[in-house]
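My current task is to audit a protein record that another person submitted. My question to you is simply how this chain folds and whether the tokens agree. This is what I was given:
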Amino acid sequence: MRHELKIDDRTLSYLDFGGPGRPLLALHGGMSEGAAFAGLAEHLGDEWRIIAPDQRGHGDSDRAPHYRTEGFVADAVALLDHLGLDAPVTVLGYSLGGLTAVHLAAEHPDRVAALVNADSSIEVPLAGAPEAGRAPAGFEFLDAMRYTAPTREELLEAAGPIGSQFVAPALRPLADGTGWRLPFHPQDMLDAIAGARGDHWEAWLAGRCPAALIHATRSAALPQATADAMVTRRPGTSYIPLDGDHFVPFTQPDAFHTAVGKFLAGL
């Protein structure tokens, strides 16, 4: 069921899949939304209560003044407070959401019982930074995307190769009925990419709770050497490789759900 809360006059929308199980805070990646975890919630059944926010600037949540990591973490803490979840919860984060989860576990260890990092690197290179307002290497498609358009078809055409698979299911009609919008603003995504850049080793190593690193072995976002170092250097970290690229939660959902479920069952 969808709910919302207010944070500094912003709306943060979230899905609470309910159930009697232990709470699991699920943080989606960039250009996505909380509904991406509907399949995981179905797979886990009543064993876990999945709570999946649309992070700031995504889905039905409002745009925010900035998209630095500390903002995403503050929103997660506000949601836990809003839900009255004072006892530590398990946190799962994919890609951008994984970085939020890592910092949440490091900065608020009393709120996190276990951590699942799904293909999120803690080394986000400064190379490829955008110049003159252009998207960084690998994200050039954001330059061509439109936030709103009179028709769905125009938005999908501008989205290029990611349109049909990742954008189409999440398009929203405008409130005034004049057209459609993306579930994110392209400029906000560029700001989120910029806000994530840097070395996050300190946050990764500060965590003391049990953790799993689900690694897509052909991921362009998380090189094998970095993944190996993340597991080796952080005690209590399980390594779960999946054969696929960075988008393995979407391209191989059954394998991803099984991997998450197996780790959670061992907690």
